[in-house]
Recover the amino acids of this structure.
């Protein structure tokens, strides 16, 4: 289909990414559960390592300390979010079948 709007293109990309993420998680789980620290393929090598990190639990910190005290150390960050909302009507698959006729 030609001339799809940028909103439709972004929706398509996100749908493909979602499918790829499912495949990635399945393969990752298989690699980790193999127990092998290294799996060699023809084009790539998977190296399994474990790391541990510490995360600050701000809810627990605020519960222990004064909220005003904690807020002095908080920094705001603004981000732009693009949500893709489906429009009622035929799905892409249905449109493909309609356009093939």
């Amino acid at each position: 289909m030609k001339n799809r709007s940028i909103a439709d293109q972004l929706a398509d990309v996100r749908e493909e990414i979602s499918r790829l993420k499912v495949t990635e998680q399945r393969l990752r789980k298989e690699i980790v559960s193999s127990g092998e620290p290294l799996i060699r393929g023809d084009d790539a090598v998977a190296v399994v390592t474990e790391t541990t990190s510490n995360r600050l639990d701000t809810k627990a910190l605020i519960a222990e300390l004064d909220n005003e005290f904690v807020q002095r150390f908080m920094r705001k960050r603004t981000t732009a979010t693009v949500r893709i909302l489906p429009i009622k009507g035929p799905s892409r698959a249905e449109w493909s079948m309609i356009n093939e006729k």
Residues 6-33 form the longest helix (28 residues).
